[in-house]
Amino acid sequence: MSSKINNPIIWADVPDPSVIAAGEYFYMVSTSMHMMPGCPIMRSKDLVNWEIVNYVFDTLEDNDQHNMIDGGHIYSKGSWAACLREHNGIYYVCFSSLDTRQFYVYHTNDIDQGNWQRSVIKQLFHDPSLLFEEDRVFVIYGNGDIRITELTSDLTAVKEGGVNQLLLEAQREGIGLRAEGCHAYRINGFYYYFFIEWPKDGNQRRRQICYRSKQLLGPFESQIVLDDNMGYRNHGVAQGGIFEAGNGQWYSVLFQDHDAVGRIPIALPVSWKDGWPVFGLEGKAPEEFTTPLPYTPTAPIICSDEFDYTVNKLALQWQWNHNPDHALWTLTERPGYLRLKTGALADSVLKARNTLTQRTQGPACKHETLLELTNLQSGDHAGLVALQHWFGTVGARIDEHGACSIVMTINDGEGREQVVESVPYTAEHVYLKIEYNFENSIDQACFYFASEQGQWQTIGQTLHMKYTLDHFMGYRTGLFCYTSQQSGGYADFAYFHHSSLLK
């Protein structure tokens, strides 16, 4: 049974995709920055249905910034533009981190369930790609001025006396963002290096460019292999590589900026002409196309959760905002509930540890929870957050006298929470909901609460969501609980319900 691919293949934030074909599956890794665990490994048989099967690491570093101690954070940093490769039965993921300014290489022989072993090179390789050639391995990286550095065969160090030089200088004239986001391959006697670039002239949108040579180090010729925005504003579809399916057909997964929902992956057929890859159909990224791949449903990458666990191990769809404090959350103390306990003092959800998140989904979606309030203390604040730098929250806040209010807050411009509306509240539990609309870059979120299921009341204001580089990530929904006064309180969440709202 063939599959019809409708783009985007995932209408959610899966930035900088790197995809390989291995056996009967396709595997994809993407940027995860400050979210932990990091570098999700996604798997599909049909390029349509993707599930998360593993993470490369639980914790990247254990320091004040990653642990959000004393105001530290790594928003927009952490893992960037990870590259996924397989060589001689071993799977590799590599990336650089802007906060540590180091290059990380992880490897495993079991991509689905294995533990990943890591090595660290104290050097920054911007947007790297690994290139294996028999018993040699290279990393190609950079922005505009693209460099190549040879690594030792075990990928633990720069090879002494190995290749380490400028590889090529990308076009300068008329270009704003010069070539970056490398994906490197050797195919049928040619070396192919794919990049994203952003011209200041012409269409002025990001596009996919390819350099090729019969020699590792050039000389090179280049072609623009895709320049299309699929009719969405002026956001070009670009940055990614190519891969061959078991049936001999070639494909690519690139991404497109879709404002507040994030950077969403787009799949394309790839054909060949005169030794050059041809992306898409008739020079365009198609809204849909058919493949002979067998349609194979999977668990989605965003899910509802009843929190009916028997061990403290969350579904793979969940990621924490920065490193969690594992002593302050539990799924087993009260079966059927996620319990978030207060710890270090914070004055904003942006500084609160143990915020548990999932992606939002276009074109529209809603997220709901039921929060029990009986164990919150003075200074505690718990609820739902539409998480980006310009956040919005809805939840319960307990004042210094122990009185409870349902509040909607936004970023006051300095990262603190500004209360837009506060409603006195005396019930022992509260239903909370956020509805998102990303269609045609409307990018609005609305906030609701109820004392009885279904009797929703709006609160606060419509949040006009903004994708900014402060977080460099699409909006996520988070469950949070923190205190501004004293630790010891906790919030019990009965469930998390995700619903896609098709337009």
TrEMBL record:
Beta-xylosidase C-terminal Concanavalin A-like domain: residues covered: 305-497
Record's keyword terms, sorted: Glycosidase, Hydrolase
GO process terms (BP): carbohydrate metabolic process
Residues forming the catalytic site: D16, E180
Coiled coil: none
Positions of the record's site feature: Important for catalytic activity, responsible for pKa modulation of the active site Glu and correct orientation of both the proton donor and substrate: D127
GO molecular function, one term: hydrolase activity, hydrolyzing O-glycosyl compounds
InterPro entries associated with the record: ConA-like_dom_sf, GH43_C2, Glyco_hydro_43, Glyco_hydro_beta-prop_sf, Glycosyl_Hydrlase_43
One Pfam family of this chain: GH43_C2
UniProt record similarity statement: Belongs to the glycosyl hydrolase 43 family.
Name of the protein: Beta-xylosidase
